[in-house]
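Chain X:
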Amino acid sequence: MAPRPGKLVVISGPSGVGKTSILRRLLTDLPQLVPSVSATTRPPRAGEKEGVDYHFLSAAEFEKRRAAGEFLECCQVYGRQHWYGTLVAEVKPRLAAGAWVVLEIDVEGTLSILGRYPEAVTIFVEPTHPDQLEERLTGRGTESPEAMARRLEVARRELLEAHRYQHRVVNENLEAAVDSIKRILADAGLPTHPTPAHSGAHA
């Protein structure tokens, strides 16, 4: 008997809201979730691994794959020269095998995904107050003032699109936000165990 198809889970939120920390906890606590590894044209940062953190593609290879329809969604982020996208190969086979695949993408990418997978579970993570985003981004100390201004402008636009998501979770603290998302996924029918074909897929 063919396995019951899995579901897509989309997590979005403005830069600095804590999505990566939330997703890391979810993947640790819920082994039945399988992460989709995004593709990008930006070079690897120190410690990043091919196929684990991203699929690092040249601009020519990315464009070739985009023209061939190999992406579910893709865009240039923050107006920079680098592209990011979700490969069909990261998602479609896993869904067919019954896995629940989680994507961390922006609002534009989510709308593209919903055009093909309207049944996807969409979750928008937001701060308790917009000023927190600037505080968190400033605290990182990794952005120039110009880059910070771009990120904050994109963040303001994304907060205005939060109503497009099925669920909205305020990240007042990590534990509460993770627990809220776990309840959302349980209500959506998340299996209690990994599918046999993908158990340990992101270990």
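Chain Y:
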Amino acid sequence: MEQFSWLVLSYKVPSEPSSKRVAIWRKIRGLGAVYLQNGVCVLPNTDAYQRQLKIIQNDILGVGGEAALLNTTAFDEQDGETIITHFNAARNAEYEEFLEKCQSYVAEIHDEIAVQHFTYAELQENDEDLKKLRHWLDKITTVDFYGAPLRAQAEREFGVCEQVLETFTQHVFDAEVRPDGVNPQE
């Protein structure tokens, strides 16, 4: 097994005010960290994550908490696989939510096609929604450190979303009156 190195942040934050505790938790989760237990999170050991976790460590100390940042490797192959499994499970949960949104997106466009609601306003709204999906997928893949199993499916499903929007776009263009005044629908 490849020897992986991780950063482990162990911390305690005062329970009040809860807004500070939640802000710290969001920063940590935003980096893609997984929790091994309450107050103990892990990230791959990179210079960028070292900097980010040092900043968070200072934030924790600044609100009266306690924090220790450690660099570690797994004791054996099984422990390493356990940590990677935690990362992949966390990413799969995010991909599952993303896949549900993709399915809703595709269904919504199919509904618009079925009722022939071919307007530029609807096209613009669907285009914005697709951009949001792209941004969301990019955020997940950025923190998919170990290739979670659902990544390929999420990328394929996003491709379906792109294709469905392209079909809808063509319907909108076909339904609009051309500059010469001819309506292709007549």
